[in-house]
Amino acid sequence: MTIIKKTSLGLFSAASLITASTAQAGDLSASLSLDTNSHFISYGFDVWGAGDDQDILFNPSLSVDYKINDNWAFSTGFWLDVNDKPAGSSFRTQETDTWVGFAYSKDIYTVSATYQSWQYASDTEEILDVALSLDTFLSPSLTWHNRLDPGASGGSNGSFLVLGAEHSFDINEKFSLTVPVAVGFALSEFHTAQDGYGYASIGLQGSYVLNEMSSLNFGITYYDTDSGVVGNAEDSFLTYNAGISFSF
Predict the structure, then answer these.
(1) Residue 132, phi-psi category: left (phi > 0), alpha (psi -120 to 50), beta (remainder)
(2) Is residue 2, in this structure, part of any structural domain at all?
(3) Which CATH number covers residue 97?
(4) Tens digits of per-residue pLDDT, 175-217?
(5) How many Å apart are CA 40 and CA 243, to the nearest integer?
(6) Is 38 part of any domain?
């Protein structure tokens, strides 16, 4: 779901809600991202099975955020997976994800709840994410990812717990680097019939500001996964991403 889409749409939409929570009451904002990714990763699962190979996936997304009052924020949006990966397929939209969520912020704490609808393979996977984040050193976060309907995923109605953190470095007024890390655990049957440690990731993401409304984004992320829990053919691999984002 960039950030790197889609370790999860939940992390993307939660980040959108957190951003909205820092705005002023009554503010309406939007962000458009045009991203390319080498892999489609969903909670450690390598969806298209790229492994050490590199695909070309186009993942545009749009988020609309509204600051309701000093504490509450609302967000909605969509994300697309556009590629020619299924055998015999043309380069087209293979998946459409939409979300709607609310966040409550006070002091350094933000709690959010986000409902998501992932539409692919003529079916719909339904998700509810509940997240807690702290606006402090390393920006720690905890996301409880719940699958309400497996749709065409082939998995079960289980849940994942993801611990995340990141730190950013301003190289100059236009260029910054961010190091995000995450560890995910299946609390119950999810991708497979096994639970426990699912994946860990660490990345290096760069952002170059073009002007007050747009920036270039690019990076690399390393994944270590447990094949018994997430079902990947290869347990470890590198992913790459690049794109441009616009804020309104």
Answers:
(1) beta
(2) no
(3) 2.40.160.40
(4) 999 999 999 999 999 999 999 999 999 999 999 999 999 999 9
(5) 15
(6) yes
